[in-house]
Amino acid sequence: MAEEQTKTIRTTCPYCGVGCGLKVTQRQDDAPVIQPDPDHPANYGRVCTKGAALGETLDHDDRLLQPQLRGRPVDWDTALDTVADGLRQAIDRYGPDSVAFYVSGQLLTEDYYVANKLMKGFIGSANIDTNSRLCMSSAVAGHQRAFGEDLVPGCYEDLEQADVIVIVGGNSAWCHPVLFQRIQAARERRSNMRLIVIDPRRTATADMADLHLAVRPGSDVALFNGLFRYLDDNGYADRSFIDAETEGYTSARDVCAAFDPDRVAVDCDVERQAIEDFYRSFAEHERVVTLFSQGVNQASSGTDKVNAIINCHLLSHRLGKPGCGPFSLTGQPNAMGGREVGGLANTLAAHMGFEADNVDRVRRFWDSDSIAGEPGLKAVDLFNAIEAGQIKAVWIMATNPLVSLPDADQARRALSACDFVVVSDCMATTDTTQYADVLLPAAAWGEKDGTVTNSERRISRQHAFLPLPGEARPDWWIISEVGKRLGHEQAFDYRQPADIFSEHARLSAFENDGSRLFNIGGLGALSQTEYDALTPRQWPLKNADDTGSARLSGVTDGTRQPARFVTTMARPPVHAVSAEYPFILNSGRVRDHWHTLTRTGKSPRLSAHRDEPFVAIHPDDADALALQENTLAEVETRWGRLNARVRRDNGQRRGELFVPIHWNDVYSQRARVGALVNPVVDPLSGEPEFKHTPARARPVAMAWYGFLMTREAPAPQRFSGLDYWTRVRGYAHWRVEMAGLEVQKNWAPWARRLLGAVRPDADWLEFSDHAGRNYRVASIASDGRLDACLMLAATPAALPARDWLGGLFARAALDSGDRMALLAGRDAGASDAGAIVCSCHAVGRNTLIQAISEEGLNSTEALGRKLKAGTNCGACIPELRQLIASCQPADSAVS
Ligand SMILES: Nc1nc2c(c(=O)[nH]1)N[C@H]1C(S)=C(S)[C@@H](COP(=O)(O)OP(=O)(O)OC[C@H]3O[C@@H](n4cnc5c(=O)[nH]c(N)nc54)[C@H](O)[C@@H]3O)O[C@H]1N2
Ligand SMILES: Nc1nc2c(c(=O)[nH]1)N[C@H]1C(S)=C(S)[C@@H](COP(=O)(O)OP(=O)(O)OC[C@H]3O[C@@H](n4cnc5c(=O)[nH]c(N)nc54)[C@H](O)[C@@H]3O)O[C@H]1N2
Ligand code: SF4
Ligand SMILES: [Mo]
């Protein structure tokens, strides 16, 4: 008898920059079981909701499985020849700068390296930019100004060793959950450890803090300039360190002198007392880590925000030592790897820029005679150049710019106007793939091999454990094939990712006399076996036997150029609110979704936490605008409009709106927040001001609300005529939330069209009240299974429980009781669990509220014991606490 074969591989999570290790076990043809890797130093066995639900995202629904040329399937040779011809024609007629690549921090290092080499080294233009421009480029620019190189000096352990953690502009409990879990575990061990959160919103992260400064958006430079002055005035400046290892102190001090606590309190719109509390905590503890993320980077003063933070750590010499330092959180799994290969338009390769000696060095290493000599266009400028017709051919890889760029409708105009658009993606239908002349099917996570680097400079392997589906191919292969077809046979003659990785490693060491700290030369001669066995380690890795460097000495140890204080000017965001646009529109992430939903949108578990686009607004503002909970609002800016569900939230500052970034034209009728965002960028980094656009909001007077549930995936086109729709993945069904401006006299013909082809032998159950305000219909197959149902009512609250109806799709056959209940729109026996709060154990909001208010379970531990909520990954604990607080009688209820 054949022995049962169980295969175990170690790989890395494809979502955020924490870079958690995963262990995948697969027994013969069973579905792979994905678990956290207990040995990976990023997570030591922890995982968050997104990592835990990866198994639900691996299906091939809507996967792009074959190359396509203007909508027609073609073979790889035809596709690759077409791409090479398209690029060559543009280069021949208009020069190398007439072509561009727009790539992504979700490419593996090997893919990224080859894309960068092809564009900068062989096409001879630096018009390759990346979605990291929208993400990390202010941090990169800030590091370069302060340290002369893009360096993150610390490591994750510092977060556990710190006495004070400051999180600025980051909702880490939702966006870097495993790191946040590590911080929380450390706080439990050491009760005097303090967490301070600086964010205009009271986020799940802020909710867990000892001190939350709900600052005025855009006021971070004032806050940190004030901290600088406080440290300096009160004897916390480390003079000998400043003299020996830094420069620029005096001019920074002179600028910061103007920021006394009273001024900071006014600038930041926070009580002076709270500000001084923060300053004292920072001053009185040696071990302070300042974590920062998109509330810092995505601003027209993003780079100055970064340097204002670093200045304070330099002044007090709180960096380069255990438990302290400024710490930029990277967003995407390989944001850091992309920076290492030089994937930004203003960097060349391996932490080298466009200085003449570096250009010559890289040219000799690549043996190229057409290397780019100067920086290329940054993302926003690049899409402007496409629209203006200066760029004739663009190749987009692993990013969805029609959703994620600011002024996203401009990006749409640009691609519509462009002569030749190539898109490499795993999915067939995204907002961006629809504008491609050539579509190239890329291998997805689990199907490809390579490396990624996380926020703490740790390089980890990703391993394939699934076969390549259809004609899908890894990105490095696709790019190399085009490189060869452009006549660069030798330069792109790679057999496997290991070849590329060692070349990349050798380039980092090439003529590196120590002036570039990014040096992984020790990995430059790995055999395939060694590459496959490579364990996670932090660069620099100069020699083959180096095990890695947790902290970067050399940032401040006097062997390199001195670290620099930068004079940082506090300036307001570019566009101010006005009578016409009185709100500030902020945008960001929710806990269980990833970016444009191409992956997490497939998972029922992840779709249950926040299932629709929403606009969060303070209840007072909502009252003034007559915005009721769960109704629909229109949000509008000078650049665009969207429709979203109202969430009244007293964690919002007054005058501010928050809309998530995830929903797009494939998932909703009109919810791309990018279309509303001003295309203003930071002058140094080119990073857009995503967090701040003047906006207004108003109710949309919907006459009815409803939802459709179907067993088959509903195509978005079917709903194009509706005034509002959003589709949501459920178990064994899809749900489409909808609303309309007009009530129909007779819903039946409309309902039949909407439900699509109903089988002739299906049972059609229908209920309509005389005013047509309540309408319900269900289609039941001859074998008794529920195929589809549609529920309409005059208000959102009058609709039946979605989880009860969703559950009916899992039944083999409906009985007469179910049929009665469907018609009645209410199952007497069922209670509505409400929106899912704990994804791991599927515990809903209503269930929790009941347990808290009726059974008096007033602690997260008690809820855990009774309902298991929060007992697995812990990502929902901040929300459990919020719910407990909101159920206390003295408190006026939260949203
Ligand atoms: N669940 C989930 N996790 C993710 C992602 C995801 O899509 N989903 N994406 C990953 C990626 S690529 C990234 S870049 C990271 C982003 O991770 P984060 O930066 O933590 O997430 P965001 O929600 O974009 O925004 C962070 C916070 O900045 C605040 N903010 C806005 N304006 C200001 C300001 O002027 N000052 C300050 N101090 N704060 C401000 C916002 O209110 C928001 O709460 O998340 C990564 N992790
Ligand atoms: N308003 C607003 N906009 C923002 C932000 C914000 O806070 N507010 N944040 C910005 C930030 S920080 C980021 S990082 C961006 C993210 O924005 P995007 O990068 O545009 O978002 P994703 O959905 O991650 O797009 C990745 C695409 O690549 C595909 N893909 C996945 N894996 C692979 C692969 O291996 N190969 C290939 N070829 N394709 C693959 C996916 O199917 C998907 O279509 O959004 C930015 N936009
Ligand atoms: S914290 Fe980030 S890397 Fe870790 S499991 Fe969650 S999404 Fe994946
Ligand atoms: Mo990002």
Task: Note down, in words, how this protein is organized.
One of its GO terms (cellular component) is membrane. This is Assimilatory nitrate reductase catalytic subunit. Its EC number is 1.7.99.4. It holds the Pfam family Fer2_BFD. One of its GO terms (biological process) is nitrate assimilation. The structure is a single chain. This protein is α/β, with parallel strands linked by helices. The chain folds into six domains: 6-57, Phosphorylase Kinase, domain 1 (2-Layer Sandwich), CATH 3.30.200.210; 68-135 and 334-450 and 471-496, Rossmann fold, CATH 3.40.50; 137-328, Dimethylsulfoxide Reductase, domain 2, CATH 3.40.228.10; 583-699, Barwin-like endoglucanases (Beta Barrel), CATH 2.40.40.20; 704-824, no CATH class; 836-887, Orthogonal Bundle (Arc Repressor Mutant, subunit A). Helices cover 31% and strands 18% of the residues. The protein contains 31 helices and 34 strands. The protein has a seven-stranded mixed β-sheet with strand order 5-4-16-15-14-6-7, sandwiched between helices. Strands 21-25-22-24-23-26 form a six-stranded mixed beta barrel. α3 (109-123) runs parallel beside α16 and α9 runs parallel beside α15 (302-315). The longest helix has 19 residues, at 76-94. The model is unreliable at 891-895 (pLDDT under 50). Molybdenum atom (MO) binds next to loops.
